Amino acid sequence: MIRYAMRALCAATFVAVPLALTVTPAQALTSCTVNGRPVSGTTVNGTAGSDFISCGALAEGDSINGLGGSDYIVINGIVAGTVDGGAGSDSITAGAGTTASGRILGGPDGDSILVGPNAGTVDGGTGSDFCRVASGHPPVNC
Predict the structure, then answer these.
(1) Chain centroid to CA 13: how far?
(2) Residues 129, 108: contact at Cβ < 8 Å?
(3) 55 with 30: CB under 8 angstroms?
């Protein structure tokens, strides 16, 4: 009887351990460059002036804020978090698109936003904006 209980316990351990090892962290770190300098974290900020921000994929809950100035923001992976251009005439490109939780916000002033497949939100904000999505949800305020 004890032998069978030990076998069941060992078998359960072999099943549970791989499951525990494959759990993803609650908050991933986004890796970017801001004006050529490497930056990583759950929130990446530009400056009050014009910036060039380039990032890989943007995890859910992570955010990129261009702040002021006319920013050029390029996301090279899927957007599951939030990209906010902030004030100024910004150019935002996310060729891989967005997930349902992904948000790309132009902010005030005239922005240009180009997005691949859009399952989330693309919002030009106030101002005269140009927005284009390859497929999925249409952009708003453009």
Answers:
(1) 36
(2) no
(3) yes
Query: 30: pLDDT confidence band, cut at 50, 70 and 90?
Result: confident
| Residue 106 tokens, joined | 């132009």
C-alpha 17/C-alpha 30 separation (Å) is 28
Alpha-carbon dihedral of residues 42, 109, 114, 140, nearest 10 degrees?
Answer: 90
Alpha-carbon span 83 to 106, nearest angstrom: 8
> Apex CA 8: angle with CA 3 and CA 12, to 5°?
150
Task: Report CA-CA distances (Å) from 55 to 3, 4, 64.
Answer: 54, 53, 9
Q: Within 1-142, where are the H helices?
A: 2-21
* pTM exceeds cut of 0.85: no
Strands 52-55 and 30-34, by their bridges, are antiparallel
Structure tokens of 76?
A: 């090279």
